[in-house]
């Protein structure tokens, strides 16, 4: 029995919630918010019974809301139950807690992930893995994950509909965060704004080096032995189109596929769209000390757009466009228009936005979900909020009021559907549910990313997805005229960040070096992959053998000798966390 809170505390203007984890029959009743130093009771309320969740087997839950309190200070929650009083760990309520302290921490995580030293030197003259000939200077970039010292624009391309946006998205997020800080007019953000631009331009410079002669970008710099710098061990990577060698010595289709130049280069969905968006954004921001000029950034972005818009099908694994291509291309077109003010890019943005809205399946008049392909609902372990943000980015540049309103209404419908799914059944943490179609064609609703997707055997924790949906919820909340819906969105947005920062059934903060119970990454019984302070781990999943169960494996077991699915840090988690906090109104 314990009270679960956001370990980092709550900002004064945020919705504030704690969850009591106990047993059925505990009969949790009234609670008090107590100022730690003075012992003064600032707030009292009644805990709301929520019950047990699916087959989590983690107890029953009661929810305590103390949102009205905005006085900065250090507090404790005390709850009356049938088994006596329960007290929380102390926590803070303060101003700019997450937007300043945590943005700074996660920003420095990226700085620690920069490729340096012997790896950087090796990458100045790097050959290709496989049959492609030649060498390239592709130094720089951020290591993709704790256990993967590669640099990736995306992966899982063989899955067709599960490409996560990786390095290009991360670079783009830094420029977006800097823009939000500038728009706020808050002078306290001046140093943070500088740090965001510093990291964004570092990423943009690497993307420039990764541009292929075709105009597309190379998909990755791969390191086979992750923790060793062995000459000739690394190279510019490629992806098979129909299977992956990520978890084995050889891809299933290695003998069947002919590896061509396109296997080394990205489509819109496999990182190209976000690389273009990042370069176009870099061209709007002067930052001294970069390796390229603003003019070079925009020229490279335009060249990449021309190549991919005309030839995207040649770079995809299935020879067609899907929703992921379209929302990534929409971000690219929006940023190209903002940087150039050329009508062509506004026209292409309108085209992509229309394609995305045409992929929506309505549920009544007020709700709709996105189909990634006809009849196949979109779901993502990392980027589920991205199509909503892409539509709203387009709405910001659309001059026609009617088209702008139609686009914002589509984004609102998508988030109404998300909140509708979330509200089904016991859900004390406000965790967003997935909807997907299984192999039998049935629509399934579950809490965590499924084990049997087309990306299998890849599955992992959802922390990037949570922050992406938090971002989408805040962005829609800024635009909706429905005050009740706005409140629901902001509560939902905060729930996702609270989960990442400790308000979850394992009482674990997912940010290394902050809060309590940080998970450590082990491999074959050894803790070789040391997580970096400020980085965010993959997070909680469904049960190993029960999709309606729950797991967070923090110690070696007879079955799990490598807990990467839960403990490994990955740059999309950190990128989305930055975006979610940058979107807060300050």
From TrEMBL:
Keywords: Carbohydrate metabolism, Cellulose degradation, Glycosidase, Hydrolase, Polysaccharide degradation. Residues 102-521 form the Glycoside hydrolase family domain. GO terms for molecular function: hydrolase activity. InterPro entries: 6-hairpin_glycosidase_sf (IPR008928), 6hp_glycosidase-like_sf (IPR012341), Cellulase_Ig-like (IPR004197), Glyco_hydro_9 (IPR001701), Ig-like_fold (IPR013783), Ig_E-set (IPR014756). The keyword DNA-binding does not apply. Residues 2-81 form the Cellulase Ig-like domain. SUPFAM superfamilies: E set domains (SSF81296), Six-hairpin glycosidases (SSF48208). CDD domains: E_set_Cellulase_N. PANTHER family: ENDO-1,4-BETA-GLUCANASE. Belongs to the glycosyl hydrolase 9 (cellulase E) family. This is Glycoside hydrolase family 9 protein. It comes from Caproiciproducens galactitolivorans. The lineage of its organism: Bacteria, Bacillati, Bacillota, Clostridia, Eubacteriales.
């Amino acid at each position: 029995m314990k009270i679960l809170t956001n370990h980092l505390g709550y900002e004064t203007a945020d919705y504030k919630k704690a969850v009591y984890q106990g047993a059925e029959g505990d009969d949790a009743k009234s609670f008090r918010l107590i100022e730690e130093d003075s012992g003064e009771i600032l707030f009292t309320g009644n805990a709301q019974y929520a019950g047990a969740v699916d087959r989590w087997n983690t107890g029953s839950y009661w929810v305590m809301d103390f949102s009205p309190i905005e006085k900065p200070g250090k507090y404790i929650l005390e709850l009356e139950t049938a088994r006596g009083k329960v007290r929380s760990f102390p926590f803070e309520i303060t101003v700019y807690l997450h937007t300043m302290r945590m943005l700074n921490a996660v920003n420095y995580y990226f700085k620690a992930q920069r490729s340096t030293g012997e790896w950087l030197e090796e990458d100045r003259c790097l050959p290709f893995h496989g049959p492609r000939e030649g060498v390239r200077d592709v130094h720089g970039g951020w290591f993709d994950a704790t256990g993967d010292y590669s640099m990736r624009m995306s992966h899982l391309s063989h899955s067709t509909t599960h490409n996560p946006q990786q390095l290009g998205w991360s670079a783009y997020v830094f420029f977006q965060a800097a823009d939000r800080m500038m728009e706020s007019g808050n002078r306290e953000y001046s140093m943070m704004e500088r740090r965001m631009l510093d990291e964004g331009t570092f990423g943009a410079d690497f993307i420039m080096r990764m541009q292929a002669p075709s105009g597309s970008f190379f998909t990755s710099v791969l390191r086979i032995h992750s923790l060793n710098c062995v000459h000739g061990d690394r190279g510019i990577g490629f992806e098979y189109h129909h299977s992956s060698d990520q978890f084995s010595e050889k891809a299933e289709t290695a003998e069947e596929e002919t590896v061509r130049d396109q296997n080394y280069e990205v489509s819109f969905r496999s990182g190209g769209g976000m690389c273009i968006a990042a370069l176009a954004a870099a061209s709007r921001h002067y930052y001294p000390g970069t390796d390229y000029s603003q003019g070079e950034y925009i020229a490279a972005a335009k060249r990449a757009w021309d190549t991919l818009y005309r030839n995207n099908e040649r770079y995809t694994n299935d020879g067609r466009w899907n929703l992921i291509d379209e929302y990534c291309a929409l971000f690219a077109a929006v940023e190209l228009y903002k940087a150039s003010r050329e009508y062509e890019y506004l026209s292409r943005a309108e085209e992509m936005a229309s394609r995305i809205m045409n992929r929506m399946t309505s549920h009544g008049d007020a709700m709709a979900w996105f189909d990634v392909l006809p009849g196949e609902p979109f779901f993502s372990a990392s980027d589920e909020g991205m199509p909503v943000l892409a539509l709203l980015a387009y709405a910001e540049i659309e001059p026609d009021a009617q088209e702008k309103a139609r686009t914002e209404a589509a984004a609102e419908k998508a988030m109404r559907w998300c909140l509708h799914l979330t509200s089904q059944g016991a859900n004390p943490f406000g965790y967003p549910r997935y909807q997907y179609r299984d192999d039998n064609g049935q629509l399934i609703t579950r809490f965590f990313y499924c084990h049997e997707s087309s990306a299998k055997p890849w599955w992992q924790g959802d922390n990037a997805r949570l922050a992406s949906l938090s971002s989408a919820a805040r962005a829609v909340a800024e635009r909706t005229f429905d005050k009740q819906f706005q409140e629901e969105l902001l509560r939902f947005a905060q729930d996702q960040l609270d989960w990442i920062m400790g308000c979850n059934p394992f009482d674990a903060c997912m940010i290394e070096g902050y809060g309590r119970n940080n998970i450590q990454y082990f491999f074959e019984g050894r803790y070789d992959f040391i997580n970096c302070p400020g980085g965010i781990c993959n997070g909680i999943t469904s049960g190993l053998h029960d999709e309606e169960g729950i797991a967070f494996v923090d110690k070696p077991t007879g079955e799990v000798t490598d807990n990467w699915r839960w403990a490994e840090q990955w740059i999309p988690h950190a990128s989305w966390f930055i975006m979610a906090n940058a979107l807060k109104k300050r």
